[in-house]
Amino acid sequence: MTSSTDSEFPGDTVEVHPDADALVAAAAKRFVGIVVAAQAERGSASVVLTGGGTGIDLLKKVRETPGDIDWSRLDVFWGDERFVPAGDPERNELQAREALLDHVPVDPHRVHPVATSDGEYPDPVAAAAEYSAAVHAHLAEHKAFDLHLLGMGGEGHINSLFPDTDAVREEHELVVAVINSPKPPPVRVTLTLPAIRHARHVVLVVGGGAKADAVAAAIAGAEPVDVPAAGASGSESTTWLLDRAAAASLR
């Protein structure tokens, strides 16, 4: 069973699902629907992926139920990346490839990972600049990302935008390096709130009771510097997909 609740922000939707499995299934259905619609309307589509347990389970579910996605006409980006060596299991890219991308016929030239710490750009600032160039090039051609998926931490962080940090305060750059992340590993590259707002559709997929208070604060209109998820919005839609536990503090 799914219920919907209006949030404080016009155009935002909150969907509450009974458990983690239903949450992941709903998120995968939303992923496929947005991509297929974008490809039908504009010929191609772009997605920004998220990591974490729920984010990777979502990709596994998409692999099982891909619908009518034309994988050859899909651009793939990441909302953030842990700045570690290429084979490190902490990399969101590696996890996404194992869950989905290695099993579908994506065009490798349309997959845009962040540089690794042992690669051509061993400095995180340089890696952020290189990734920013790829993001800007995509947006110059396509105007927007079609879908930006987001998970959320218990304190309300999204991508690698943590409360009360320079990265969450960034108002102009689309990509920044994070040197002292409060959550390990400490060095990361992340899209910023301005980059998230370049997405037509933003979907936040959040499960678990430990996140309930941050969910409620974000939906109620907290300051993004305090609860970064409050600053996530798409130009056409912003959707919160929650399980019952994550929705427990909503009023």
Please explain how this structure is put together:
- α2 (52-64) links the parallel β3 (45-49) and β4.
- The strands form 2 sheets. The chain has a 7-stranded mixed beta sheet. Strands 5-8-7 form a 3-stranded antiparallel beta sheet.
- The protein has helices at 20-42, 52-64, 92-99, 124-142, 166-169, 193-196, 212-220; strands at residues 3-6, 12-17, 45-49, 74-78, 80-82, 145-150, 175-178, 188-191, 199-206, 237-243.
- It is α/β, with parallel strands linked by helices and 251 residues long.
- It is globular and about 50 Å long.
- The model is unreliable at 1-11 (pLDDT under 50).
Query: Residue-averaged pLDDT, rounded?
Result: 95
Q: What string gives the helices and strands in order?
A: EEHEHEEHHEHEEHEHE
Number of helices: 7
What structural class do helix, strand and pairing data support?
alpha/beta
Shape: globular
**Unreliable spans:** 1-11
- Distance from N terminus to C terminus (CA atoms, Å) equals 19 Å
Oligomer: single chain
Fraction in helix: 25-40%
**Strand tally, please?**
10
